[in-house]
Write a structure and sequence with these properties.
The chain has 315 residues and is α/β, with parallel strands linked by helices. It is built from 14 helices and 13 strands. It has a single domain, classed as 3-Layer(aba) Sandwich (Rossmann fold). The strands form 3 sheets. A 7-stranded parallel sheet has the order 3-2-1-4-5-6-11, with helices on both faces. Strands 7-10-12 form a 3-stranded mixed sheet. Strands 8-9-13 form a 3-stranded mixed sheet, covered by helices on one side. The structure holds NADP nicotinamide-adenine-dinucleotide phosphate (NAP).
Length: 315
């Protein structure tokens, strides 16, 4: 019997990496999983161990720990968390930290001679916004959590890498911007995506798609794989939520500037992101062919399927 090959998963306690850990364990196929976390002894680390993963300590800010964690693996999934809290005295921006972490991971993977890297990345929005001075800069970028990832693609270029371009998590429609009840008692889904189709995906399907990429191996090395589970307008997301909740949800398009002016810490960045999703919708959604994603991940869920599955087994 061929021994199983190990995939190291950065962000294993989080959404994307967690999705990949579950996918590998559920699949029970050709791969085993090494889950990387800064805190193996945490409840999440212990749960991964209990579920059957090898859990090892690694910190993207500590390159030596990455050398140890990547040692001997066949493949590695790398995701950086732009949103992780940044100490006020850090002396760098979140984007600079994300770039430094991606560079450290790429250097460690080069030293350890990994055979396949899947780098979780996103589009660079700066080309789209080049002529639009009305869209404010954030940390010298337009949408730093997109643009810094795209910029970091270059760090992985010398490696056997597949660039996995993700998109908005379906989970946001439940956790971050769920339908809200107004004074009139009615539910609205208020988002700045105009009338444009928006690509979304369940985090479990990011994991399963990444597993599909590892399973294809060399055929996808050097390639960009752009994924989504569904492509719906605001009305489409609202209609699916209406059916799941059993009461009407109305989509309300929010002007980009009004969204940016809300004053919460990431309002400008998120407003810019939604403006990019809306204005670049034709290209962004055309790059995500759901039939091709389903070839990689036959269990790919539409938004309605994800909502229904969630109701069957709530987290
Ligand atoms: N939300 C969306 O819709 C969306 C869509 C596309 C892309 N993204 C991108 O997804 C990224 C975050 O991924 P996620 O949502 O899967 O993560 P998450 O659920 O927020 O969890 C963060 C993960 O990052 C790990 N981590 C943080 N700092 C680390 C460090 N210094 N060294 C090693 N591991 C570290 C954490 O591990 P430990 O704490 O266990 O060490 C944890 O597993 C962001 O960069 C965001 O831009 C988000």
């Amino acid at each position: 019997m061929t021994p199983k090959r190990t995939i190291a998963v950065v962000g294993a306690t989080g959404s994307q990496g967690g999705g990949l850990v579950r996918a590998i364990l559920d699949d029970g196929g050709e791969f085993t999983v090494r889950a990387l976390t800064r805190n193996p002894g945490s409840p999440k680390g212990a749960a991964l161990s209990e579920a059957g993963a090898e859990v090892v300590a690694a910190d993207l800010d500590d390159e030596a720990s990455l050398d140890r964690a990547f040692d001997g693996v066949h493949g590695a999934f790398v995701v950086t968390n732009y949103w992780a809290p940044l100490a006020p005295d850090a002396g760098i921006s979140r984007a600079e930290r994300e770039l430094a972490q991606a560079a450290a991971a790429a250097r460690a993977l080069e030293r350890t001679g990994v055979e396949h890297v899947v780098w979780s990345t996103l589009e660079d929005t700066r080309g789209h916004f080049a002529d639009d001075a009305a869209v404010p800069d954030v940390e010298g970028y337009k949408v730093p959590h997109f643009d810094a990832k795209a910029e970091a693609d270059a760090f992985f270029a010398g490696l056997p890498v597949t660039y996995l371009r993700t998109t908005l998590f379906f989970e946001n429609f439940v956790d971050s911007f769920p339908p809200r009840r107004g004074d009139d008692g009615a539910l609205t889904l208020a988002l700045p995506i105009a009338d444009q189709p928006l690509a979304g995906i369940a985090v479990d399907d990011i994991g399963r798609s990444a597993l599909g990429v590892f399973a294809r191996g060399d055929a996808l090395v050097g390639k960009t794989v752009s994924i989504a589970g569904d492509i719906l307008t605001g009305d489409g997301y609202a209609a699916a939520l209406s059916d799941a909740l059993g009461e009407p949800v109305t989509y309300v398009p929010v002007p980009f500037d009004r969204f940016r002016a809300q004053g919460f810490p990431s309002a400008v960045e998120m407003g810019n992101m939604f403006q990019y999703y809306a204005e670049n919708s034709a290209q962004f959604t055309a790059d995500r062919d759901l039939d091709r994603v389903r070839e990689l991940n036959p269990r790919l869920q539409s938004f309605r399927e994800w909502l229904a599955n969630r109701q069957k087994s709530p987290a």
